[in-house]
Design a protein that fits this description.
With 121 residues, this protein is mainly α. The protein has a domain at 45-121. The protein has helices at residues 2-6, 30-43, 45-50, 55-72, 76-88, 92-102, 111-120. The longest helix is centred in the middle third of the chain and has 18 residues, at 55-72. It starts with a helix and ends with a helix.
């Protein structure tokens, strides 16, 4: 985050690092993701305001990601609990996630479409 305030980033077509995924990844803990994301928004609130960044868009993206994580962990009841927040923080990504859960379109959460979501959002 701090580096993004100092200068511009560029794109490289190949990975610089690899991320190992396992059952105990911290990124699977939705409470931690939510807490840390809101803490980052709190810490950088002055910079966010100065750059006129939409805080609701940031928070909405976090909730959308949480719903996908919970759904992929087979915690569908908990995912539906967070689902109502997607309507409050609407974006194209969250609308797709909301309707996919509403109409039980589980294929939406496949790995190929996750890559598409990252490019859209």
């Amino acid at each position: 985050m701090k580096l993004s305030l100092k200068g511009r980033f560029d794109y490289l077509p190949h990975p610089l690092v690899y991320y190992r995924i396992h059952d105990n990844n911290m990124s699977r803990d939705v409470n931690l993701i939510l807490h840390e994301s809101l803490e980052i928004v709190r810490l950088y609130k002055d910079e966010i305001k100065k750059r006129k960044i939409d805080v609701d868009k940031i928070i909405g993206s976090v909730y959308g990601s949480i719903v996908i994580i919970l759904y992929n962990q087979n915690k569908k009841i908990k995912a539906r609990y967070y689902m109502h927040l997607l309507k409050r923080y609407n974006s194209i990504k969250n609308i797709i996630i909301y309707f996919a859960l509403k109409f039980n379109l589980s294929f939406i959460f496949s790995n190929k479409l996750k890559i598409l979501f990252k490019r859209i959002y």
